[in-house]
Design goal:
63 residues; three-stranded antiparallel β-sheet; 3 strands
Length: 63
């Protein structure tokens, strides 16, 4: 997935309850989830790729 980063940091540390959803080729973590919380270091709304939006909606709808 191509992503647009706008002054966004990467995830440097996280607890045991956090699931890593996406990394860069160098291993930097750029998307995480913990329960109902979703965090990304990129802006999926700035591209035509709807996969992150679909993932979010699927999770919200209990898919």
């Amino acid at each position: 997935m191509r992503a647009v980063f706008i002054r966004a940091p990467v995830v440097e540390s996280f607890g045991p309850e956090v699931e890593v959803l996406a990394t860069l080729p160098d291993g930097a973590i750029v998307a995480v989830r913990q329960g109902g919380l979703l965090g990304t270091a990129f802006h999926p709304e700035t591209t035509d790729d709807e996969r992150m939006h679909a993932y979010f909606l699927n999770e919200v709808m209990g898919g």
